[in-house]
Amino acid sequence: MDFQVVLLAGGTSETLSPLVSRDVPKALLPVANRPLLSYPLDLLEASDLKDLIVVVEGQEAARLVGAWVSSAYLDRLRVEVVAVSEDLGSAGALRAISKRLTANDILVISGDLVTDVLPGAVAATHRRNGAVVTALLCSVPVSGPSDTPSSGKDKAKKPNRLNIVGLDKTKQFLLHIVSGTEVEKDVRVHKRKIQAVGQMEIRSDLMDAHLYAFKRTILQDVLELKEAYRSIRLEVLPYLVRSQLRSAPSVGNGRSVDETGNSAVLSSGNLQCLSQHRVIAPSAFKQDVLSRSCGGHRCCAYIAPKSKYCHRLNSIQSYSDINRDVIGEASHLSGCSFSAHNNIIHPSCVLGSKTTIGPHCILAEGSQLGDKCSVKRSVIGRHCRIGSNVKIVNSVVMNHVVIEDGCHIQGSVVCNNVQLQERAVLKDCQIGAGYIVTTGSEHKAESLARK
Amino acid sequence: MSQKKSRSRGGGGAAAAGDDHEDLARPPPLQAVLLADSFTLKFRPITLERPKVLLPLVHMPMIEYTLTWLESAGVDEAFVFCCAHSNQVKEYLEKSGWAGRAGAGSMAVTAVESHDAISAGDALRVIFERGLIHGDFVLISGDTISNMSLKDALREHMDRKKKDPLAVMTMIIKHSKPSVLTHQTRLGTDEIVMAIDPETKELLYYEDRADNSNLYVTIDKDILSNNPTLQLHNDMEDCYIDICSPEVLSLFTDNFDYQHLRRHFVKGLLVDDIMGYKIYTHELRSGYAARIDNFRSYDTVSKDIIQRWTYPMVPDVISNRNCSESRLHRQAIYKASDVTLSHSAQIGANSVVGSATSIGDHCRILNSVIGEGCTIGKNVVINGSYVWDNVVIEDGCQVSNSLVSDGVHLRAGAIVEPGCVLSFNVEVGKNALVLAHSKVSLLPQPSNEDSDEELEYADTNSGVTDSPPFSSMRSNGDQATVPSEEDESGTSETGTCGVVGYIWTSGDAGILEEWRQSIAPISKEKLEELQHAVSENDGSEDESNNPTLPDKDDSSDSAVEDDDLISKFEKEVEETFQRAMGGGVNRDNLILEINGLRLAYSLQHADCAGAVFYSVMKSALQAAQSTNDSLLKTTAEALGKWKDLLRNYTKTVDEEMEILLKFEEMCQETTKEFSPLFSKILPFLYDTEVISEDAILRWAEEKEHADESDKVFVKQSEAFIQWLKEAEEEDDEEE
């Protein structure tokens, strides 16, 4: 396929601090002990989309990502890692590399997308419809972990609206999209849009997954024309959708009146008999309108089936959620096979006596656990040293972490090289890399990082 | 379910016997309310003399179609609500045998009469008062043609009702895409925008009369947060067939201002979230349903009937009671057996010719309906027209796309242009030309006061006008001219062109809109014009859609609107203030109201201060005599009285500055009376602590660099400012 993939891998995002630091850019953040970037990369490989540009914000981050990619995907993908300056926004980053784009169609993927929707399917839809842009939309993931007490509250709350999307009857064409701050307002739809298509489905339960297929020429035109555009989701895509119905060539429009039986104008009385047919079989008519009025400019949507997993890692909460899901219900994403106990324990791990590892856990190589430990629904990285009587629940422990005796960790993220001294208690905390939690200290819902 | 099936089939009477033993299990009899009055004026002038429901539609009165369908759909009891021309409707019901029929399998028809109803809402209130309806009922207008099966819709309605008693109504809708250019359906009605929940089919939004001025459909955010998915439809047509629960009637009684079924009732229910009543839709996928709303739909539905979309409601199946059978020939030509047809006459496709009609040599009849007992001479061309009974058309006439009522006489060589409506017994003289879209009647056009209201057949409640007042003129009919009588407002005697009767001027719709709902197809020129408008529209939209700002379509005009907004706000504040002066509002409430206004216009506190100050000064000016002294006195009084209010808004120096600037502006522009007093009022403002010295000094400072013209007031109050400065210095020294 003549597709070029642009993977926007981000840089060292502020929102994910302290998990993300200068040493660990967002793309390399471990999710179930694999760097985040490996999820979209594997997916692309599976779709046979092997020609790609990874765009990283910041030189240093780019160097780290480049080093990792070239070692991990050597011979598998043709990857070019490009550094762009920070704070360009997604559209800005694309603009920066615009010269490098050569293929007919460009697939743009956000590097923080953890999904099992094949990009190939989106690309194929894009090609089939001859679209200018095709966006992947997926159902909004059920928010909040189902097993925490707060889930009741989450449900009582009105569902969080991410986008308002208008689709045509066949659910293929994207007719209207509103995102960002406009979402909370009343929905305004231009009447001419509805008039042109007759019927529009308005959905507020779909999420824009940041996976787009663009026609290259149009994308480059838009980027050039609209220099102020920073975001693909908030600006470029809405712009393309908006301009869809514009510039309807006046040539064929006279025909659209057939529907109302005014066709006698066209000097043929026989068309009056046809008028009723059109009412019954309007699809042909609609196709006509779409193809005509778009003038080859149409925006499409690929709606992921409900069963597919699709989540973006763009907050601490989503980091925990994705980790839990990848070792839990969406375990096929992790790429490993789970044991009979529904967990993965690397053979090189050493477990003390009476230590239990519950289901939905991953223990990476070289980690050691002392006696009477209990690990539930958690990820533990490489070469961690964990003492006795330690409880780890619903947490992520990255590599080379030292946890001394009697620590309790719940719902937390512990980054590389952290040291937890004896009887430290963490609940819903994020501990930045290299931090030392002192003996007996208790932390609740805090974010700790080395200064 | 089996019983329902039998019920819906049972119209013909065949299943009636089977129903008897199921009586116990049967739900209460299905009732229907048929409104034999459309409560509109669209079929005037014809409806001045005959009610719309009795107008012939392919040889049969419209109500006949409706009643036949109701019976076949399994309705047990129908109430025909008559208002205008009720005598004629009742007479018809008796003559045709609908009324007074009883017994198993046939529908009982009862006429309900009321003369003071002016809307569908009134009609339903009358029905409610009389206590006729006991269960769910079908609400339909007497001009609806359908052959759909109500079975599914009824079952859905009942099932929903069992689960949710608030589901009070099911509307039948049908797919029909309105024209992109004219924004109307093929029935000539305005396009509708509806929002429907795709799962439950609940109606969430309804907008008819979707005029072009409002370019956007706006859906409330609450609707969307409750329904993550909804379908916006522009391609649906409202069939005006509703299945209602009895609550609907009481709702009409409770809300006595509901008049129109859709505009008031449906919208009212959708907006009202306290009661939570819900309306659902049922999409008609097979079967036919259409309401004759205007002349265009009359034309469209007639063609549908001729082309047998309404089967079994087609001319050869249910033929009129006492006339001979009409037979279907090839190309949808229906001819009664006793038609006298010249050999050289040609009848084209999609035409109907009634019995006892004779057609002369070399006539051409295309796409037209000719009634009974008509006499058509030689070389007549009738195209796309509806000629009712006993019409005489002499040699060489041409009629195209027009409606010709009973008893009309077209003399030789007359030409009727497209879109005309000739009401009863009109005569058109020799070689006369009736211009396109004329409406001609023997009755004068009612004066405008009547047509303002939505009174239907307004002034003819009494029934038929038996003696047309212009019978005397008929003798002049064959002369080329008739003395013109222009005394009637808005109507002109049509004698000048050889027509006996009045040519009506078009009503409020205006002659420009005439083409929308006439029988005549829309002219090519009109379409081109619209086409042009659309492409122009395109252009303008382009601009608005080319925003330099990312997400705003309308940001460009916000600056322009700002000034406008503030002046509007000021006006409202002034009105509020004047009410307060009248003693209507106490001070706290006044502040509340002004704050409310401020929020409504989303303005700053400073704007408020300016506006309130303006109102106070305005009140002083009104109270004052012409002299400066008295103005100063009333100003002092007003400021003294309202200083608390003003102080409420002058919390910061910025707001005080705003007042000063406002004062200055007033002196220069709006109320020049104050300008000589500026320097005298300023110390007073200072004394009442409305304005602090900081503000005054800053104001003076800012003005220092301004134009000379702007400095007038600074100079005027120089002494005061000087005094303030000195006082400040003294203060400093003391410290």
Automatic annotation (TrEMBL), chain A:
CDD domains: LbH_eIF2B_gamma_C. Its main location: cytoplasm. InterPro entries: eIF2B_gamma, LbH_EIF2B3/5, NTP_transferase_dom, Nucleotide-diphossugar_trans. Residues 345-438 form the EIF2B subunit epsilon/gamma LbH domain. One of its GO terms (biological process) is cytoplasmic translational initiation. It is found in: Cytoplasm, Cytosol. GO terms for cellular component: cytosol; eukaryotic translation initiation factor 2B complex. GO terms for molecular function: guanyl-nucleotide exchange factor activity; translation initiation factor activity. Residues 5-146 form the Nucleotidyl transferase domain. Pfam families: LbH_EIF2B, NTP_transferase. Keywords: Cytoplasm, Initiation factor, Protein biosynthesis. Gene3D superfamilies: Hexapeptide repeat proteins, Spore Coat Polysaccharide Biosynthesis Protein SpsA, Chain A. The keyword Amino-acid biosynthesis does not apply. Acts as a component of the translation initiation factor 2B (eIF2B) complex, which catalyzes the exchange of GDP for GTP on the eukaryotic initiation factor 2 (eIF2) complex gamma subunit. Its guanine nucleotide exchange factor activity is repressed when bound to eIF2 complex phosphorylated on the alpha subunit, thereby limiting the amount of methionyl-initiator methionine tRNA available to the ribosome and consequently global translation is repressed. Component of the translation initiation factor 2B (eIF2B) complex which is a heterodecamer of two sets of five different subunits: alpha, beta, gamma, delta and epsilon. Subunits alpha, beta and delta comprise a regulatory subcomplex and subunits epsilon and gamma comprise a catalytic subcomplex. Within the complex, the hexameric regulatory complex resides at the center, with the two heterodimeric catalytic subcomplexes bound on opposite sides. Belongs to the eIF-2B gamma/epsilon subunits family. This is Translation initiation factor eIF2B subunit gamma.
TrEMBL record, chain B:
Its main location: cytoplasm. SMART domains: eIF5C. One of its GO terms (molecular function) is translation initiation factor binding. Residues 1-25, 443-498, 531-561 are annotated as: Disordered. One of its GO terms (cellular component) is eukaryotic translation initiation factor 2B complex. Signal peptide: none annotated. This is Translation initiation factor eIF2B subunit epsilon.
